[in-house]
């Protein structure tokens, strides 16, 4: 049980992280401090996703096996007696001094994001009311949704620890983090006036949304690979165990509600189940990449979407390269973390593509592409 003093110390660390971000915002020369705050929060969220991958891949998720503190304390220094005792029993186990610090730093950074989102909500409401509820970028509805979402994310962070890294909980925790990043990107995109894009972008709205959904599904599969420690289940490429379709156990591999490394019946997870997990992630990557590349090809032909289309294609090519190198080089930590970071970058870029594809729709309510052409023909063209 965590006492009030420990909770106060933990909260103060989250506030300290947020204060560092506030210093960056208020010392910036950008006159729009609210916009700067949103983008600094987004940047910190991206960093936390990367650090979360590092936490997971270094097996530090149970470095402090309770929550929100570490053996009931606010930091590993205060819990050193417990950590040393656990480390003495299992030197290579989940609890070590290094792993405890990795886990707690991840929590401190996550708490900082929570504080920053609370600040975004308060500031957006204040500016929204001061503007007579007329300034679109200060609408508090998205910030409030962010606050609700970050609370849900925090709950799954707690369950990740208390349920001993149950794969489905950890995977949902990853997906929620990526979704929070995407929501922040959408709020960030609302902070400035974007130049109009060609009316043909109206037809790209659904394909761009499908591309984002496919990416989300692929990230879920990647999280399932990572949380089940199935990264090296196929150690060759492009084949898997020298076969196009190796021996696989999909039933046990994709049973969602089960303990880490175990089947639903409590037996050890067979290796063919790990193979099925890895193989599915690898095969679906080609489906996702092909579709996103097609969407980028269509976007590149639309005035105003060329830059974002190039960015998505470049990130996609980098992600595929990192994925292949990660398998070929036997899953080095730096590449594995970079693979996770590049997935987050793809989320950001596809959210921006979706936002830009909806600019004509927002400018011309209830108008089709032909009507939008008339409205936008007088607007200056810009590829930004």
UniProtKB/TrEMBL annotation:
Pathway: Porphyrin-containing compound metabolism. It is a multi-pass membrane protein. Keywords: Cell membrane, Disulfide bond, Heme biosynthesis, Iron, Membrane, Metal-binding, Oxidoreductase, Transmembrane, Transmembrane helix. Its main location: membrane. The keyword Iron applies. The chain crosses the membrane at residues 6-25, 37-57, 108-129, 141-162, 168-187, 199-221, 279-297, 309-327, 333-353. It is found in: Membrane. This is Heme A synthase.
């Amino acid at each position: 049980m965590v006492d009030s003093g420990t909770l106060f110390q933990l909260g103060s660390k989250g506030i300290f992280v947020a204060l560092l971000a506030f210093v960056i915002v208020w010392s910036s020369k950008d006159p729009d401090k609210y916009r700067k705050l949103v983008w600094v929060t987004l940047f910190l969220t991206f960093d936390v996703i990367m650090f979360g991958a590092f936490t997971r891949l270094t097996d530090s998720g149970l470095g402090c096996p309770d929550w929100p503190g570490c053996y009931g304390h606010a930091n590993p220094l205060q819990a050193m007696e417990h950590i040393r005792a656990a480390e003495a029993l299992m030197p290579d186990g989940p609890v070590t001094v290094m792993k405890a610090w990795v886990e707690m730093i991840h929590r401190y950074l996550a708490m900082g994001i929570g504080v920053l989102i609370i600040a975004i909500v308060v500031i957006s409401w204040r500016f929204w009311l001061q503007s007579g509820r007329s300034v679109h970028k200060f609408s508090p509805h998205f910030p409030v949704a962010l606050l609700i979402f970050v609370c849900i994310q925090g709950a799954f962070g707690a369950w990740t620890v208390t349920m001993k890294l149950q794969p489905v909980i950890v995977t949902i925790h990853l997906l929620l983090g990526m979704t929070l990043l995407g929501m922040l990107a959408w709020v960030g995109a609302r902070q400035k006036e974007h130049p109009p894009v060609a009316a043909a972008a109206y037809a790209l709205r659904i394909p761009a949304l499908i591309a984002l959904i496919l990416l989300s599904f692929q990230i879920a599969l990647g999280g399932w690979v990572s949380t089940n420690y199935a990264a090296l289940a196929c150690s060759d490429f492009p084949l898997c165990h020298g076969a196009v379709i190796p021996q696989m156990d999909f039933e046990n591999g994709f049973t969602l509600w089960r303990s880490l490394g175990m089947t639903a019946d409590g037996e050890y997870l067979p290796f063919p189940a790990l193979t099925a997990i890895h193989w599915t992630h690898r095969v679906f990557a080609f489906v996702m990449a092909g579709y996103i590349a097609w969407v980028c090809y269509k976007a590149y032909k639309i005035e105003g979407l060329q830059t974002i289309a190039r960015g998505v294609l470049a990130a996609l090519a980098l992600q595929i390269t990192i994925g292949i190198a990660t398998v070929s080089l036997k899953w080095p930590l730096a590449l594995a973390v970079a693979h996770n970071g590049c997935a987050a970058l793809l989320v950001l870029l596809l959210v921006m593509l979706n936002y830009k594809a909806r600019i004509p729709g927002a400018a011309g309510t209830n108008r089709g592409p032909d009507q939008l052409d008339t409205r936008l023909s007088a607007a200056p063209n810009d590829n930004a």
